Amino acid sequence: MSVSGVKEIREFVKQVKDFHQTRILEQKTDQKYYDDDFSVGIVEPFHTTRTGTAARIVDSVVDHIELAIPQVTREPRKSTEKERESALRVSRFLNHLVRSWHNETAEIFKNGTLRGEFVGLVQYNDKYRNELENGV
Question: How far apart (Å, rounded) are the C-alpha atoms in residues 119 and 40?
């Protein structure tokens, strides 16, 4: 590799670090609060009591999500029978994938919420029937 190639790589790495530095520092701060390991400036003879409230707040978001029967749907793009069948096939496949990822789902939600990078939209499906094959 030429010297100019190494220089380009180093410049690219510097640009990426500069771009993400603020976000990464904020995530590290969030992690300290989650771990209840941040400084509070209290000196002797007083002491700090760590309650773990931040972790409970983040974890409570995940605890309220129903992960027992996850549902994924895809709306048909057109109003034709062929497109409805296609949407149903895609929905079945996506539901199969979601069920296979079930164990990791709670961890994904927790980490995304903790890092401040997750926005979830949960919609109530009043037409849901557990006995249907595709669950929609």
Answer: 30
